[in-house]
Amino acid sequence: MGATGAVGPVAVELLRERGYTNVRAFASARSAGKTVGGLQVEEATPEALGGGDLDVCLFSVGTALSRELVPRVVEGGAVAVDKSSAFRLADGVPLVVPEVNGRRAAEHDGVVANPNCCTIPLTMVLKPLHEAAGLARVRVSTYQSRSGAGVERMEELRATPPAAAHLDMDWEFDGVDFDEEAKLRAETRKILELPELPLVSASRRSRVRATRSASTTCSWAASARTRRSRTGSSSSSRATTSARVRH
């Protein structure tokens, strides 16, 4: 679902690479009939998605549309893997990074949530460090590409002279945090199962079409001073790591 967006064509390509042959592509009515990765796009009506002939449905659409259509998929007997923020923090919905807490995926009741794009690599870095040394505090700054804002923003950047492409923010602001920063904090706590973890984040859009980066500083528990992490960092109470992912 969302086959013609920024993520959809890549998802279709990856499914083919991994040997999946019975794949269908869904999108909005205006995209129905187009071709993505050799698949003809079908209109994502509630009836089509809830018809009982789907096994797993990958959603990469907006939060409102996920809230509307994911329940229909589940009612039809399929498992929905949702990329939006609609269900990430809902009780009973596993929020899964396979390399971090993949076992939680089996605990689903029809919906598995996929984290924010920056939460994924962050938790992959933090989990082994926490297991080895005990996290006391995390500070992270993320620099996020235009791909996270959708195809239109990517094309807008392509057409903009480099000197005119500012680091503008397109997230909601509540007077304290951008919602992107709040998501990163809450999702990291849920995935790592550290509900009280002190985590401060700052997020910015960068002048690139794809790829994210994050600068992360961790403080360790006092008892960790004599340990060494499995990544080979020293036994000091602080370390700085950087992670970059392609989106």
Summarize the structure in short:
With 247 residues, the chain is α/β, with parallel strands linked by helices. 28% of the residues lie in helices and 22% in strands.
Secondary-structure element string: HEEEHEHEHEHEHHEEE
Strand order of the largest sheet: 8-7-9-10
Distance between the termini: 17 Å
CATH superfamily label of the largest domain: Dihydrodipicolinate Reductase, domain 2
Description:
The protein is of the alpha/beta class. It has two domains: 8-113, Rossmann fold, CATH 3.40.50.720; 119-245, Dihydrodipicolinate Reductase, domain 2, CATH 3.30.360. Helices cover 28% and strands 22% of the residues. The chain contains seven helices and ten strands. Strands 8-7-9-10 form a four-stranded mixed β-sheet. The protein has a three-stranded mixed β-sheet with strand order 1-3-2. Helix 5 packs across helix 7 (179-192). Mean pLDDT is 84; it is low at 229-247.
